[in-house]
Known about the structure:
Layout: H1 5-10, H2 15-61
Amino acid sequence: MWNSPxxxxxxxxxxxxxxxxxxxxxxxxxxxxxxxxxxxNAIVRRLKQEQLAEQFDKExxx
Length: 62
């Protein structure tokens, strides 16, 4: 279909749309697992803080 690498990268005049779409997709695929991990760590940290606060409250009320 393409006679040269430059024709392939030009994508029939739609290179800007095609390659920017690939770029955005790649960024999303990289960013999503990182954001999930960050949210998970934040939730675990908050739960640990709440557990420590509950233990502290129980010790004080004794």
